[in-house]
Write a structure and sequence with these properties.
Largest sheet: 6 strands, mixed
Number of helices: 26
Structural class: alpha+beta
Number of strands: 34
Helix content: 40-55%
Shape: flat
Distance between the termini: 100 Å
Strand content: 15-25%
């Protein structure tokens, strides 16, 4: 008879058949996952290798792998050994209670897995954590001394920047290993009866006692080392008053930590003794003593010293430590050598006052890069698949007749969103691959109707910048990836630029550079198809053996990948250098471990109306250097790093780690030198520090009697808290022999309540011109100058000046005329320029129609000097009116014909919907205002002469006043006989206070 198949025999056979299938599926899944991981890693190798920075990738991978292995072994081995020792030395005949018996029954089948699995899991976590600290380890191994010692312990600053963080990390890791081992030893010993609790009695076997006492002793020994290292950390920590060790820290906290470290070491010895003699009383008493000591020595004693010794005499006792903080903060932020210049700013706008500042006046920038982007878009975009950034950049270019000119620049980048329904994969990644051209406009000029005057424009690109490669394959808004390149003789498919007014007339091109990894075999195509989740990369006929794939194209992203130790400046800008468009990126080396240097949040320091706060979780710093200037070629993406601050020890350390990646400054061309500038983010951090640390005397610093802050941007809405950004201008500061390209910002008194005085207290500028000699900085580059205004000098600040502009009745009437006909009035950047012995405010005023295709046109210019203002069609006219009919210098827009108010943007002058004032009437108004300003000054001179009893000066001023009155009468007669009938009353549409930004 055939045996009957039962369920009992069928189920094991089915399970046996399913097991190979499950194993096969698991293996296939692992292989697929592994291949995806491999594809990503291989793509990284190809990208770095093509760019010439594969050393950066392999060094990082090698360091991470070694550290992962070290971390894994350093955690897993001690934990495994501790568990094994505890298990193997367990009592053989231990009497267990019923509850422990049940625990053993449950745990025993999993014992082997747990004894190996727990150390392995902990080791993986430890390995990952250790691998993430690869930068810390490499900088410790390659550390470079700073050559400067801290004033408390006398150690080189490099000890705090490179060594102390490493030592504390090692001690922290070792403490975690020993602590986990101790916990697992106790758990294992309890589970297997080496530790028994019987009522109030705890019975510990000899083997468990030895193991627990030794591990506890090791843990306390590590804590002793940690507390000892904490002494040195006091000079980088925030105290109650400053960053660094103040009086309480020096006299109570630091000695207390030394004492606690000795006590902890003694208690550790007591635990080691317990392992031998078996008495727990001494280490337990020692542990209690350590806890009590930490409360008394570590907390209570410093509080008593601070409360009863320091607080009553804080200014005197803290003075030497505040001075340490001042001196080392100024060193760490590079502001120790700042030139502070007392500046008695004039407020009287006298005729001819600008004669000695003619070059500065001619360079005052009227085009606001944050306003005129839409003008670039409307006038230079040409096609919907091109775009310009919202905020343009300021650069400088040589003039045909010599000298340089501040210019507004931007690249015409590709915009795939503009393709609309044509946004297929082929168009997005094969055809529309690049932008075209750099557009530059003069910063101090405008056309007759208020448009920018372009120095370089058009498609094909033409202008004053000469011949250069105009194609932009690597930009700030380039597509995620593009596939370019083709065999010789193949028909070009990439859109180069539109060749005419007809959309169908286009010029094609083929990329012929070396800009990305080659897709010259099926395996690479598959790798990138997986990376970008696009099967077309593998299947498309457009992808051939000569194709390259371009990705990671943002200049900042490329610099961050090839130099992970650098923090890039948030503002990257394009320049034409040696026949190429290149992106210039400033790179910083940072630290938060510089002793006694004040810590600031970098994201908060660089936040203003032009750049909102970046989302950084931990970004406090107390040391910064602009150590690297980087360039990214806009055509082929080549990244070049130049060592700009070759004395920076942090940069020198990284040069040891990546020796072949950074070129010396001597290899920078003269043309590149002429376009690099002092970086804005560094300047913002320095101005944030100088708000308090311009005071270099401890007593004044303590009382904060002269603390400053950066003013809010007056062109923003009243409720806005955004700060006014610094501005690039070519100007001559006191102490300079000639004007230079500079970056400046202003200071007002620090607000102590809701009410604050918006008067100028300081004017900070830095020479941003590096010169044009190959490989050599100009002598003045990076020189910081601070104009300090007297306390009793009430020079109005930006907010006060803007309020004066907005509330002036005459200005308001003209703004009403400009705003008629569905137009908005936009205030441009409010510039502050030190000329004429005082401070001149200049603000361009734009008019923009509310239609979708409009753009801002520069219509008027507001100027202020002291308590006087002027509002005219051109800067040249406004300065002449402001300074009594003759400023003594010509502005850069002196050749611009006066516009007629009431003209809508985009229309011809004089064709607006509102009532137009004739050109003759505008000239007459200018002369009248100039005469009134002269009369006001003559009256003031009479009063001053009378107060001093100077009758000669009194008579001269009186005669001048009589002459001015005669000229006013003559001007009135001319107006009555030859002028047009008076204009109708201006409509009261927008009030001056509602001027839009």
């Amino acid at each position: 008879m055939r045996p009957r198949v039962t369920a009992e025999t069928h189920e094991p056979r089915t399970a046996r058949r399913r097991a190979p299938i499950a194993i096969t599926i698991a293996i296939v899944a692992l292989l697929v996952i592994g291949f995806f991981v491999f594809a990503g890693l291989y793509a990284d190798v190809l990208w770095y290798d093509q760019l010439g920075f594969v050393e950066v990738l392999t060094t990082e991978w090698f360091a991470r792998a070694i550290l992962f292995f070290i971390g894994f072994v350093a955690m897993a081995a001690p934990v495994w050994a501790s568990i094994q020792i505890a298990y193997r030395s367990r009592p053989v005949y231990a009497k267990l209670n019923s509850q422990l018996d049940r625990y053993q029954e449950v745990f025993e089948p999993l014992r082997r897995l747990a004894m190996y699995g727990i150390p392995a899991v902990l080791g993986i976590f430890a390995g990952v954590a250790t691998a993430s600290r690869w930068e810390l380890v490499l900088t410790w191994l390659n550390r470079t001394p700073f050559g400067q010692t801290d004033p408390q312990f006398g150690f080189d600053v490099g000890f705090y920047v490179f060594e102390l963080p490493f030592y504390r990390s090692v001690v922290g890791f070792a403490s975690a290993v020993v602590l986990l081992s101790t916990i697992l030893v106790i758990a294992t010993s309890y589970l297997y009866g080496a530790i028994r609790v019987s009522g109030r009695e705890v019975v510990i076997s000899k083997s468990a006692r030895i193991q627990i006492a030794v591990t506890a002793g090791l843990y306390l020994a590590l804590q002793a080392v940690s507390i000892w290292l904490d002494q040195y950390a006091a000079v980088t920590e925030q105290s109650s008053l400053i960053t660094g060790a103040a009086y309480t820290e020096v006299h109570a906290v630091i000695p207390g930590r030394g004492i606690l470290a000795i006590i902890a070491a003694a208690v550790a010895i007591l635990f080691f003794i317990t392992a031998i003699i078996g008495r727990w009383r001494f280490p337990l008493v020692g542990t209690a003593l350590l806890i009590v000591s930490s409360l008394i020595i570590g907390s209570l004693y410093p509080w008593v010293v601070q409360r009863f010794q320091v607080d009553p005499s804080e200014r005197v006792l803290e003075e030497p430590y505040i001075q340490r903080n001042i001196d080392l903060t100024r060193d760490a932020y590079g502001v120790a050598d700042i030139d502070e210049i007392p500046y008695e700013a004039k407020t009287d706008a006298e005729p001819g006052a600008l004669r000695s500042d003619a070059e500065t006046t001619a360079s005052i920038r009227l085009m606001d890069p944050a306003v005129i982007s839409s003008a670039f878009q409307q006038l230079q975009q040409f096609r919907q698949y091109y775009q310009f950034p919202d905020d343009l950049d300021v650069d400088r270019y040589p003039l045909p007749d010599g000298g340089t000119q501040d210019s507004i620049v931007a690249v015409r980048d590709v915009n795939l969103e503009g393709l609309g329904d044509a946004s297929t994969w082929y168009n997005s990644h094969i055809v529309y691959t690049h932008g075209y051209g750099l557009v530059a406009a003069a910063g101090n000029q405008r056309s007759v109707d208020g448009q920018p005057v372009f120095l370089q424009s058009g498609i094909p690109s033409a202008g004053q910048l000469g011949d250069f490669q105009p194609r932009v394959y690597f930009g700030q808004t380039s597509p995620a990836y593009s596939i370019v390149g083709a065999p010789d003789g193949a028909k070009p498919v990439e859109l180069d630029y539109p060749a005419g007014g007809n959309e169908a007339e286009q010029t094609q091109t083929t990329f012929d550079g070396d800009g990305g990894p080659k897709l010259d075999n099926a395996f690479k195509k598959l790798v990138y198809a997986l990376k970008f989740q696009s099967e077309q990369i593998f299947l498309s006929d457009a992808v051939n053996d000569d194709s390259q794939i371009l990705y990671d194209r943002d200049p900042i992203e490329r610099v961050k990948k090839v130099a992970p130790y650098l923090t890039p400046d948030s503002d990257v800008y394009p320049s034409v250098v040696d026949g190429r468009i290149v992106w210039i990126v400033d790179g910083y080396t940072l630290s938060d471990q510089f002793p006694y240097s004040n810590k600031v949040s970098m994201s908060e320091a660089i936040a203003d109306s032009e750049g909102l706060t970046p989302t950084l979780a931990f970004d406090e710093i107390n040391y910064i250097r602009n150590s690297v200037k980087a360039t990214v070629d806009a055509y082929d993406g080549t990244v070049t790093l130049y060592a700009w601050d070759q004395d920076d020890p942090i940069l020198q350390t990284w040069q040891k780690i990546f020796p072949a990646t950074i070129k010396p400054m001597s290899e920078m061309s003269g043309e590149l030198m002429s376009h690099v500038r002092y970086p804005a983010d560094l300047f913002k951090v320095q101005r944030a520090v100088l708000g308090r640390y311009h005071v270099d005397e401890a007593g004044s610093f303590y009382s904060r009697e002269d603390a400053w802050s950066t003013p809010k941007d007056p062109t923003q809405p009243p409720a806005s808290e955004l700060l006014q950004p610094p501005y690039y201008l070519t100007m001559q500061m006191p102490g300079q022999d000639a004007p230079s390209y500079s970056l400046y910002s202003t200071f007002i008194p620090e607000s102590r309540s809701d009410q604050s005085r918006n008067v100028l207290r300081g004017y900070l500028a830095v020479d941003s011109d590096a010169g044009s000699v190959a490989g050599k900085k100009s002598d003045g580059y990076g020189k910081l100058r601070l104009l300090s205004l007297p306390e009793d000098d009430n020079v109005p600040g930006p907010g006060q000046v803007q309020n004066t502009f907005n509330s002036d009745t005459a200005v308001g009437q003209q703004l009403n005329i400009l705003a008629q006909g569905q137009s908005d009035v936009i205030n441009g950047n409010l510039l502050t320029v030190p000329v004429g012995g005082g401070l001149l405010y200049v603000q361009p005023v734009y008019v923009k129609s509310t239609t979708n295709t409009s753009f801002p046109l520069l219509r008027k210019v507001l100027v202020a000097f002291g308590d006087r203002i002027a509002f005219q069609d051109t800067l040249d006219q406004a300065l002449n009116v402001l300074f009594g009919g003759d400023s003594g210098a010509a502005a850069g827009d002196e050749t611009v014909e006066p516009d007629q108010p009431g003209t809508e943007p985009g229309a011809e002058p004089g064709t607006g919907d509102g009532t137009d004032a004739g050109a003759g009437e505008g000239v007459q108004s200018t002369e009248l205002q100039a005469l009134l300003n002269r009369a006001q000054q003559a009256l003031k001179n009479k009063q001053d002469a009378l107060a001093k009893g100077d009758w000669g000066a009194y008579g001269q001023a009186d005669a001048e006043l009589a002459e001015i009155v005669s000229e006013l009468v003559a001007l009135a007669d001319d107006g009555a006989s030859g002028s047009q009938p008076p204009a109708t009353e201006a409509p009261a549409t927008p009030a001056p206070s509602s001027v839009k930004k």
